[in-house]
Amino acid sequence: MDLNRLAVRARLRSPWESIDLGVVLARRQWWPLFIVWLLPATLVFGATALLLWDSPGWAIFLVWWLKPVYDRLPLLIASRALFGEKMPAGAALKQFFSVNRRDWLAWLSWRRLSPTRSFDMPVTLLEQSSGPARGARIGVLHRKHASAATWLTLTGYHLEVILGLALAALIYLLIPEQVEIDWMPFLSSGAIWLQWALNGLYLLVMAAVAPFYVVCGFSLYIGRRIELEAWDIEIQFRNLVERQRRSEKTAPLAAQLMLLCALGIFAATPALQARAETGGPPEQAREQIDEILAGENFHRMETVKGWRLKEFKREDEAFPEWLIALLEWLESLSADESPEPNGTSWGPLVAGLLEVLLWIGAIGLAIYLLWHYREQLGRALKFRKKPPREKKAAPETLFGLDVRQSSLPADVCAEVLRLWQQGEQRAGLGLLYRATLSHLIEDYLFEFGDHLTERECARLVEHRRGGNQEQPPVSSALSSFVQQLTTAWQQLAYAHRAPETARVQALCGQWQEVFAHD
Amino acid sequence: MLDTAYSIETPEGIDLKAQAAGPVPRILAYAVDVFYRSLILLALGIALAFADRAGMGIWLLCSFLLEWFYPVFFEVVRNGQTPGKKAFGLIVVNDNLTPVSWGASLLRNLLRFADFLPFGYAAGTLSMVLNKNFQRLGDMAAGTLVVYRQAGGQRPELPKVAPLAPPRGLQLQDQLAVISLAERHGELSEARQRELAGLLEPVTGKSGETGLQYLRAVGCWLLGSR
């Protein structure tokens, strides 16, 4: 047994997966398996047709009973194929009698109805064991796979019946409609030739299913052996040893090549010689490598701890109280109605239940619709939710001017005029301007920022004049004041053109008017 | 190498693997579902027998819903597992191994009538046997697949040995084999384990019992015990 030639992947499989693998194996070489099963069975069928023509039921029973005899050749072919050996159907047929020599009587008598037939057959045919040794072996194999083998047999049996019926149904479906057959007398007559035709169909179906049944059982057996004997480990270990051996064989060659290269380099650059001498021979280098690999750097461990949500199993809910109450209420509902004379008191209860369900459905639908169209409804009813205004931090400086309320003097106008008289025109008008900005930000909630210019600020004030529900309205007096002040400030700040004193005084007067409430 | 594995590569270059489930477990799972469905219908029939002809109508309605939507409901809501599939550890997935969607589940279940032809799901069985991934006709149309649910389960108990660092040059597959040897120490016979350890003598330099103990220690190390 050379495991390296194994045609299937050796790995641990559940019994069901082993059976699936059997389907794949059988599918690959279904024809030869079908032929070697069908030919002997057809011979028996022919013989029974000659001898038992009058009792077709017994004939097909005999053919069916001899199944273990035909099963052995497909098994032989499958076992060869497992190790990549192709066995033609002809060669297999020649071995018909030699494979059937062992234990044939047991298989045809007390083991015939064994539900694990295809799983046990390899022990007889391939391991060639019988007697107590076989019993012990079967015991070990059955420990985990017996139930799957039994289900396989049951499934196979039912498949045969169902596929037989399906084949009959297919033939029936393919008879043209014009051919009118009166089926009832035809079927009930029990004509012998009709029964033989059905027997023939059943034989074909048996032969079609048998390869799958036999190979699935064989695959189950192989799966169990892979598990018991660790074929997967053996194959991998052999691969590893082989790889190691090959790399050792090629290692000296590689070393020579490297030496050659090294010599070439040394010849070209004599200066390197001093360093090369400290390297030492390859064995020493390997030792060093091993040392480093075994060292701390390659065995660093890290433990990560943390909390994470576990998958909780949901506990089964107890029967809820409200449901009981509801049922009781329903019962009382039906009890109110006078019992009908014919005694079926279930009608009202069912009707009541349905009514309640309908009401629940209607109310649920209404709630769902309300929820789904809540926005449209809200808009229609003018329930405008105020969008949550995040209070933006008011800027502390604008255009390099301090606009905090706290930085302003108590009497802005007096201070402005005082500065103006002292000749500090820029400081004076600047104070007025930033006092205005500051009030606009604090009282009128303007969101000025560094991204705006003075003119844009003035334009914002102008836009708000029409009124806006969410923010305090701006009077036209304030708006025109801001326009004038901005113009004056821009001319002073950027063009160095100071306004006349009278104009500054007028602006101060306007300032007091528009911010009078302070 | 023959196997029943189904693998698919995600756009991120990750190989996802699953084991496609073949006809036998699927037929059995279907039988379990049929059993449950008949139980429900039987109970309903008894309960509705009192409601006379209306009961008959409701029963027919229920049997229609059960026949066509029982699998759809469980496949979509219960992680691709009807009770029968759950009993056999099977799960329905899309063919890119994502959870099955409403549309796909509906399609694969409505197409059961095609799989049923000409009688008793003969077409479906044939299709499952012949298809590479054991898909029946409805599966092929809906782009779905039945695979085994990989159970997390408990790792087997490890042998009680002090862990040792592995020798150099072990590839991933070799490491897995060593781990497997350590994990199956209770299942394999001692003689067989010694034989397997003996195979690795050229690599480990140890044979027999010491070699086996060494490999078990390496296996424990590879599984993270220190």
Automatic annotation (TrEMBL), chain A:
Lineage: superkingdom: Bacteria
UniProt key word Transmembrane helix: yes
Domain Protein-glutamine gamma-glutamyltransferase-like C-terminal positions: 432-511
Coiled coil: none
Keyword Repressor among UniProt keywords: no
InterPro entries membership: TgpA-like_C
Residue stretches spanning the membrane: 30-53, 151-175, 195-222, 253-272, 349-371
Entry keywords, A to Z: Membrane, Transmembrane, Transmembrane helix
Protein name from the UniProt record: Protein-glutamine gamma-glutamyltransferase-like C-terminal domain-containing protein
Source organism of this protein record: Microbulbifer rhizosphaerae
Automatic annotation (TrEMBL), chain B:
Domain RDD: start-end pairs: 21-143
Entry's Gene Ontology cellular component terms: membrane
Superkingdom as given in the UniProt entry: Bacteria
The keyword Membrane appears for this protein: yes
Ranges annotated as spanning the membrane: 27-50, 56-77
Membrane topology, as annotated: Multi-pass membrane protein
Keywords assigned: Membrane, Transmembrane, Transmembrane helix
Subcellular locations according to the entry: Membrane
Protein name according to UniProt: Putative RDD family membrane protein YckC
Species the sequence originates in: Microbulbifer rhizosphaerae
